[in-house]
Amino acid sequence: MPPALTLLLAVAAAYLLGSIPFAVVSSRLFGLADPRTYGSKNPGATNVLRSGNKGAAVVTLLGDAAKGWLAVFLAQQYGLPTSGIALVALAVFFGHLFPVFLKFKGGKGVATAAGVLLALDPWLGLATLGTWLFIAYTLRYSSLAALIAAAAAPIYAGMLWGTDGLVLAVGIMSMALIGKHWQNLQRLLAGSEPRIGGAKKAAKVLKTGKK
User: Which residues are CB-contacts of 20 (< 8 A; sequence separation ≥ 6)?
Assistant: First the structure.
């Protein structure tokens, strides 16, 4: 098979894999409402967690991360060049953001990006995840953690790889992820973005009538 055709098929397959909406799939498996009908209406793990079903949220998180990791891993195993691996990484990531199965209205890409980065370089993935965890734990804002981790990822990639072509792919994913969180950024600046655990606390207040 000609290399160009192989690359085209790999990119198409990666996009279709990225388009699998694990938030919707896990919600159906657990008998939950479609995550696009409540909360932020975002088909992602954070919004599925708002249903109160942690199992469904975990399945969503793992599924979204796994598809990013698998696409890049297979591209590496089949010996695609660096440019080909970069295109596959972008294809699976943008497949999640703009899935053909959900009329191109997908999630924000945090878990899928994490899976891609872990496959590209475990140290890069761990450094980015560590940044997310640190911000999320200390400041209690999931969206802020995602924004800072996204901004840090290309810096980490540059430190690890120098001027490698994959740094550009990481940078593109970073900009797209930040763009997907634009409304969250506006709420953060306005002071109206909910903190991690805030929804649970609010629900408790409504139920008990006590602050």
Answer: 63, 67, 99, 101
31, burial (CB in 10 Å: exposed 0-12, middle 13-18, buried 19+): exposed
* Domain chopping of the chain, boundaries: 3-208
Q: Give the torsion sign (CA, 191, 193, 197, 198).
A: positive
**0.85 cut: is pTM over it?**
yes
**Does the structure show a pLDDT above 50 at 202?**
no
Torsion angle of C-alpha atoms 146, 72, 166, 81, degrees rounded to 10: -170
Nearest to 57 by CA among 199, 204, 170, 188: 199
Closest CA to 106 of 97, 117, 118: 97
Token digits of residue 207: 């139920």
Residue range 15-41, pLDDT digits in tens: 999 999 999 999 999 999 999 999 889
* Residue among 110, 107, 95 at smallest CA distance from 43: 107
Nearest Cα to Cα of residue 113 among 135, 80, 91: 91
For residues 63-71, average pLDDT: 98
Q: Which two tokens stand for residue 94?
A: 């943008």
CB atoms inside a 10 Å sphere around CB 207:
8
Q: Nearest 5°: phi and psi at 109?
A: 90, 5
Please name which of 125, 179, 169 lies closest in space to residue 147, comparing C-alpha atoms. Answer: 179
